[in-house]
Amino acid sequence: MPTLTIDNQQVTVAEGATVLEAAEQLGIIVPHFCYHKALGAVGACRMCAVTVVEGAQKGLQMSCLIPAEAGMRVTTGDPQSTSFRARVGEWLMLNHPHDCPVCDEGGECQLQEMTIASGHGIRRYAGKKRTYNNQQLGPFIVQEMNRCIQCYRCVRTYQDYCGGRDFGVLGSRDRVFFGRFQAGMLESDFSGNIVDACPTGVFTDKTYRFKSRYWDLQEAPSICPHCSLGCATIPGGRFRELQRVRSGINQKTNGYFICDRGRFGSGYVNHPERPRQLHSRGRELNLAEAVRWLDVQARELLEQQGPEAVLLLGSNRASLESNWLLQQWAIDLGCKVPLLSAHIPRHQAAQVAAFDFSDRLASLEQLRSSDLVVLFGADPLAEGPTLALALRQVVRAGGAVIVYDPRPLELPCEFDHQSLTPVQLHELLSAEKGPEIDRLCELLQRAAQPVLVGGGDLLGAGGLLKLKKLAKRVSNAERACLLLPLLGAANSFGAALLSPAEQDDLLTRLETGRVKMLVCLETDPLLEAPQGERFADALAKLDELVVFDYLPTPLSVHASLFLPTCAPLETVGTFVNNGGRMQRFAPVIEPGLPIAVTGDGDHPPREFLSATPGDEPRPAWQLLQWLMDDRRELSQLHGQMVAQLPRLDGLTELRPGDSGLRVRNADERSVIVEDLPEQPAGTLQLLVSPARYGSDLCSRFSAKLTPRFSPAILRLNPQDAAERELSAGDPVVLDCDLGSFKFCLQLSEQLAAGCALVENSGAFPHLVPGDRLSFCAVGAEVQL
Amino acid sequence: MAQEENEPPVGLLAEEEIAAFIQHAGELEHPREMIIDLLRAIQNNRGWVPDAGVELTAAILGLTALEVEEVATFYDKIYRRPVGRYPIHICDSICCWSRGGEEIANHLLQKLGIEMGQTSSDGLFTLLPSCCLGGCGRAPGLMIGRQFHGQLTIERVDELIEQLRQEDCA
Amino acid sequence: MNREQLLFKNRRPGETVFLAGYRATGGYQSLQQALRDLTPEALRQRVKDSNLRGRGGAGFPTGVKWNFFPADQPGPKYLVCNCDEMEPGTYKDGELLLADPHQLVEGMILSAFALQTDIGYIFIRYAYAQQAENLRRAIVEATEAGFLGQNILGSGFNFELHLHSSAGRYILGEETALLNGLEGKRPNPRLKPPFPAVKGLFGRPTTVNNVETLANIQHIVSGGAEWFRALALTEEGSGTKLYGLSGHLNRTECFELPVGMPLRQLIEEFGAGVWRGRKFKACLPGGASTPYLTAEHLDVALDFDSLEAVGSRFGTAGVTVFDDRTCMVAATLNLIRFFARESCGWCTPCRDGLTMVRWLLETIETGQGTPEHLEMLKDQLQQISGNSFCALAEGAMGPVAGLLTHFEQEIIDHLEKGRCPFQ
Ligand SMILES: Cc1cc2nc3c(=O)[nH]c(=O)nc-3n(C[C@H](O)[C@H](O)[C@H](O)COP(=O)(O)O)c2cc1C
Ligand code: SF4
Ligand code: FES
Predict the structure, then answer these.
(1) Where does residue C351 fall: left (phi above 0), alpha (psi -120 to 50 degrees), or beta otherwise?
(2) Which of A327, A399, A578, A653 is exposed most, by the fewest CB atoms within 10 A?
(3) How far apart are CA A632 and CA A626, in angstroms?
(4) Residues C36 and C64 placed together within one structural domain of the fold
């Protein structure tokens, strides 16, 4: 821990820190471009020059490159370094078009800031400027190369950090160009990060173009709702329109970067069909009346028909607070304990994560510094994309990644893929001995910090429990082998944590006919749970279907009472991510119809009203409080939650934008796991896997992502196809318990033989990932 | 990145050449080190490296076209645009400059009726400025294909051009 | 003065010596002797004692550099020969390989033995097609004769040698850019540390040496360190040097002469005097990146230390002479155009700073300059020097420094006359 002096102030820094970082610790920002915390220093821009007065290398030095040494004396404001930095500012601006007034980066341009900080103001160079032709890079990113200052951050982000291979540096000298081989959509699932990385207006968010000036944008720290990793984001909006999302910084989770699903998947907030108004089938009610009516109705039903007449259903999309309040309301009403998920297998998997895993959950930060990560039944790019980025960092640092999965996976790094069917995966995890498990255990035992990743969807609760056994087996006194589960949604962990060990099955309950009123809190089992068809039939038995939601789901249309709620971006709340990290999100915009919609593009809107059009959505937690006539502040609520559930310790201190807190560990309470079913002869194991885009409902309702949506795909191993006399491109039918589905067949060598893989987002709503292992038949479509 | 006519990928490399390169790439621990060799082989056959040549190189080495292009566009002796049958690299560095290189270059430009970087209308000559060719003792010099010609005079240059024009007719 | 010819001893106009001719004058005897009598450490020590300094431009003592090399570390290690030779005014390595390619091959085998590397690469520039051909043949011959390959001359030492032809660009001469180029990556220089001796080609320990440096090794082996040092005319110097003459001289050829030649003798005796009966005005003593010498330096001995003492560098000993009718602003502009065009584009002082300098010199040369432009030029020199990522931009400032030190008056003439006084 060396102590050095910078500008006459002493500072003690960590071993290996650079002078730039040491200065930053003192609050002295040395201007810089090519240095970036996540990308490191490369010494290209030369902007960060300082003068070393005492130290191993004296004189003008690049502060990003020289290590802080004990006893060093450095100045940042002396004439030598200030005049050099001013010169660097001038050089960087030689070719710049000076188009700040029309530049999309205006107001958040580091070039502007650093040029001013460098002291360069007046242009002296009067020679020719070099200019470029821009490339079309697809629907998400615009390029304006003339603004480039060649800091190489985009390519270091895209290639080095994110592993993209279709964007890079072309040419040389003062004509380097950052782009693709040919115009076209950037292929990486992390392409949007170059927007954040670029310090000036070369790469900007196309979907946000011409919408707002940065200083007009409302921003607030948030948590990405698109998967269970809980990456930090900073959404921005204006006039009630959510206009863009950029990456937030949280070392414990995503670090500095996010995926394109999170960045460009925010369109659901302003979906044109988003239900913004209460509807109540024939009853004339305003919001307050509707809430009162609901409470009265529920109580009446319970009184007349017993505690089973009202069923409350929470969800993994709803916040921790909303789910908890739902439970409180149930107590208040005197009905049975709410179900916190319609998708029982997913919920059970999340419970294993929340309870059995809790003492050895890894954060993404820990995973990034691991030397061996083994994935079982997990497809990071589809189920938690930023995990794929973390895996890449493991490999870049010399670690290894091994994947046991039936699917033909892609990752932005090198990895060892062992293709096993789900049944074989379970067998491997249960095996005491055998060449493969022995080899694996030996590798894990030798690793300095191994992490096992388990896909909750594919392994289910049973598989995750076996994974924990393996983790125990390869742990030793010096270090535990950590675990990271991938779960269904942003708050799967939170919902599981609140839930009792045994949860009823929604369908069984409904099919008894004793349930008269179902209240769904931000969930649509028609889309989110398996067996949608059975569910649809069961709905017919209800007297009242009450839905709270912010998405235009089919259920919100069918509801007999619909209460519009705020999207997570419009309110405050807490999600618990797959690693058990509680994280607070803040409201970014107000609910209401965007002006761009009400005014049909014109401004101001044609009608003048005192109320905001479409502002009826309320935070779900607030509606639930109203039901109980509870007017407390959220902070008081949090206090009560912690008092009841000590695992949530720290909940009251959480702030939006901080790095969050791990929930406290819990005792194991392993759920009872059914045995794997027998496989009928001649069938294939059915694998339903989420598509990378559109499988979570938020991204499915984001029109911006349309270019990334893919049709549903059925894949077979060529061997299985040959046995059935099928070939690629054939029209085929897949028969399973859920029905018959038609596909155009694709083949894949990497898919484990004996499996039928369906990659689906919304095309077949009944095929939902994460269901129990089941079997299917695939055959040629019979032409009638 | 290159602006090129869309030419079909014929004549990039012969089948046997491709097979040999694939075999060699398979033997190497870092096949990427063959990028320049491949691009040059294509250039030797085709005169320049069209987009399809970059793609072929990428396919043989297990790289993306972009990864090959990043390297290809760095070097000035890999032509990513069509050139004449005889690309002429005329040295404009200090030794040639000191002994009349500029006059030779201007004479050539006039004679061929083109500007630097352009190809003569008969498709025979492309004039490219080049840094030092290593013929400083025989300045001024130029390189046609990979043949260096030094101690140039206006007359000698005229002769060279005439000779190549005739070679082309033959 | 002795005219001992080591490197050029087999050189005949228009001829290339291959294996038979090379062996006839004692070729590969040093190799046999070293493998028989010397340990790798002893060989490294002898090179260190010889005080051989790198002939690629920087003049770093070869023996010292070799002592940094982890010769005993197991696993692959590489020896790379730098034959990029693209610095204007430098053509000595090309001449050597045209005359006698086995010189390099034997030197490399010996160096590989000293460093215990078993794989070598010769990185050769695009324009040296004939030289590459010569080397290819020499490698085949040496392999067939058992000097290359497995268990060389029964010593148990293995060495394979590959040839890599580049595709242009001066920056590949910079050793770390060269390594990237060899790997098939974009040839930007690498950040140091780690140095190539620790992490070089494909991440393994690597030594990069110049052609002429490597070709000297066998002579040090056979003649001994003392003898080698005594070849130089200066006290500190050692060995001979290939001097490549160019520019305004009557004879522009490459000569092997002792290190420490006085500039005047080189010009008068070997360059046969300044051409067209004109007077000597200035010269680049060691390639395009070395600050000018002027008439006042004619009696300076051409060696590393003595040239540094007068504010220049020995560099590659490619001497380019300018007569008294040369506009030094124009000459410097030509040099800067070269460096700016050859910049790799990685760091700002080089990529954009050289553009700025080029523009300033253009403005002055075309008579549009003002005293402010002169001040800006001085400022650019000060700011770029020492502050770029690699030595390319540093080298580019060599002639600018020379111009401002010795020919400021010529710039002022341009400003005052509003045109180039030489036109
Ligand atoms: C821009 C630049 C160009 C260079 N070009 C060459 C070259 O063409 N040949 C060479 O041997 N060294 C060249 N060098 C020096 C090499 O980096 C390196 O120092 C040298 O090859 C080491 O060999 P030596 O110690 O035997 O001289 C160049 C250096 C720079 C910065
Ligand atoms: S000085 Fe900078 S830009 Fe110039 S060649 Fe070296 S690294 Fe590249
Ligand atoms: S930040 Fe240090 S050189 Fe760019």
Answers:
(1) alpha
(2) A653
(3) 10
(4) yes
Residue C185 is assigned to a structural domain of this protein = yes
Ligand 3 centroid distance, CA of A61 (Å): 10
**Which tokens in the block code for residue C294?**
């002027």
Domain B86-169 CATH assignment equals 3.40.30.10: yes
> Is A182's Cβ below 8 Å from some Cβ in B?
yes
CB within 8 Å of C339: residues ≥ 6 apart: C288, C289, C350, C354, C392, C393, C395, C396
Of C184, C318, C344, Cβ closest to residue B136: C318
3-state SS class at A303: helix
Specify whether the CB–CB gap between C57 and C96 falls below 8 A. no
- B85 at C interface, C-beta within 8 A: no
Rounded Cα–Cα distance for residues A652 and A671 (Å): 30
Residue A519 phi/psi, 5-degree rounding, is -110, 115
* Closest Cα in chain C to B61: C184
Q: CA of C344: which chain B residue's CA is closest?
A: B74
Give contacts of A46 with chain C, Cβ < 8 Å: 347-349, 387-389
- Asked if A686 contacts A736 with a C-beta cutoff of 8 angstroms, the reply is yes
Question: Radius of gyration over alpha carbons of chain C, in Å?
Answer: 22
Domains of chain A, first to last: 3-92 (3.10.20.740), 126-270 (no CATH), 279-343+495-597+613-662 (3.40.50.740), 348-487 (3.40.228.10), 684-780 (2.40.40.20)
What does the radius of gyration of chain B's CA atoms come to, in whole angstroms? 18
- pLDDT of chain C, 423 residues: tens digit per residue: 778 999 999 999 999 999 999 999 999 999 999 999 999 999 999 999 999 999 999 999 999 999 999 999 999 999 999 999 999 999 999 999 999 999 999 999 999 999 999 999 999 999 999 999 999 999 999 999 999 999 999 999 999 999 999 999 999 999 999 999 999 999 999 999 999 999 999 999 999 999 999 999 999 999 999 999 999 999 999 999 999 999 999 999 999 999 999 999 999 999 999 999 999 999 999 999 999 999 999 999 999 999 999 999 999 999 999 999 999 999 999 999 999 999 999 999 999 999 999 999 999 999 999 999 999 999 999 999 999 999 999 999 999 999 999 999 999 999 999 999 998
Q: Does B102 touch chain C (CB under 8 A)?
A: no
Give distance in angstroms: CA of A42 to centre of ligand 3.
7
Q: Is C279 exposed, middle or buried (0-12, 13-18, 19+ CB in 10 A)?
A: exposed
CATH of the domain at C368: 1.20.1440.230
Of the candidates C7, C158, C161, the one whose C-alpha atom is nearest the C-alpha of residue C79 is C161
Give kind and range of the element (H or E) at residue C409: helix C408-417
Mutate to test the pocket of ligand 3, among A19, A21, A47 (most ligand atoms within 8 A of CB): A47
Phi, psi (rounded to 5 degrees) for A405 = -160, 140
DSSP state letters, A557-620: HH-SEEEEB--GGGS-EEEE-TTSEEEEE---S-SS--HHHHTTT-SS-SS--SSPTT---B-H
The CA-based angle A505-A507-A512, given to 5 degrees, is 105
Select the residue of A65, A126, A174 nearest C352 (Cβ to Cβ).
Answer: A174
β-bridge mates for residue A688, sequence order: A758
Unique residue bearing structure tokens 């005169």: B47
ipTM comes to 0.95
SS3 A327: helix
